[in-house]
Amino acid sequence: MAQDLSRFHSPVTDLFAQPTSAAEREALQLSPEQQEQFDREGLLPGIRLLDERQLEVLRAELAELVQAGHDGEELWYEYHSNESGDPNAVLFHALGAWRIKPGLHDILWNPALLEPAAQLLRGPVRFWHDQLFCKPAHDGGVVAWHQDYSYWTRTKPMAHLTCWIGLDDATTENGCVHYIPGSHRWPLLPTTNLAKGMDAILDVLTPEQRAEFKPVPCELKAGEAVFHHPLMLHGSYENRSPRPRRAVVINLFRDGTLSDSDEPLLTGVDAIPRGEKMSGRFFPLLSQT
Questions:
Q1: Are 152 and 160 in contact (CB under 8 A)?
Q2: Which parts of the chain register pLDDT below 70?
Q3: What string of DSSP letters covers 182-211?
Q4: 77-96 tens-digit pLDDT
Q5: Residue 36 to residues 40, 68, 81, 147, 232: CA-CA distances in angstroms?
Q6: Cβ-based neighbour number of residue 253 at 10 Å
Q7: Going along 55-209, which residue ranges are E strands?
Q8: Could you report the per-residue pLDDT of 109-123, keeping only the tens digit for each?
Q9: Which helix or strand (DSSP H or E) is residue 12 part of?
Q10: Count of helix runs (H) and strand runs (E) in the chain
Q11: What domains are defined for the chain?
């Protein structure tokens, strides 16, 4: 049985070197112009988070995790070998890899992630949960249009941040994420089925929102990331290319966020009573600043 790495609230490998000086930390921080771009558009793409060695480790770990019967499978919060249910539109989607594999655990303490996240959240950073998304070559399915916070209303206030990290080059051809810039200023929308079609969102948009519904692809090189706001409307189309499209998603929130449910916030996790601060073993503090 695999060791549950959620018991460790610091790196367990040397995969992500930590800054040793103020200058090294500052080199990882966003410029005022980048912060303004995020506030204006609701997303910030093209942030380099992983080098080639880190990519190789994470790809190898992912390759093991997509195999049935892998060690540690009892530790997942969710695991969908194909969330679409259509063998011709495969979407692998799983939550909880940080508990199983050391590289996917340690990426939470990647300073290239945490320095920008603390700036965008304007405070100390806590971990919410991770996700793995994989679209195989030729028949990779969609991730339907959605706002992340529509799935997270069991926490409050809305002080969250998503970081989508490509393990492959993400292109329009292989199903990169598309965004509606500025949609982070829209109110909360109803959820639709995440893996079964892209058009359902149109039924819940107002005429004004439909007029602004102009998808923009976010192409990234392997190892690059895009940060986006919890109300940002986004989704991704099919992978029609001969290459896979694999990604790690790290979801974060500002320290001080509260539970808004008396039920467990994730499968297998002890409940945090409504109104109490999100903390403890499964929601570690990642950054003090």
A1: yes
A2: 194-196
A3: TGGGSPP-----TTS-SSGGGGG--HHHHH
A4: 999 999 888 898 899 999 99
A5: 6, 44, 38, 21, 16
A6: 23
A7: 78-80, 92-95, 125-135, 143-146, 155-156, 160-166, 177-179
A8: 999 999 999 999 999
A9: none
A10: 6, 14
A11: 36-265 (2.60.120.620)
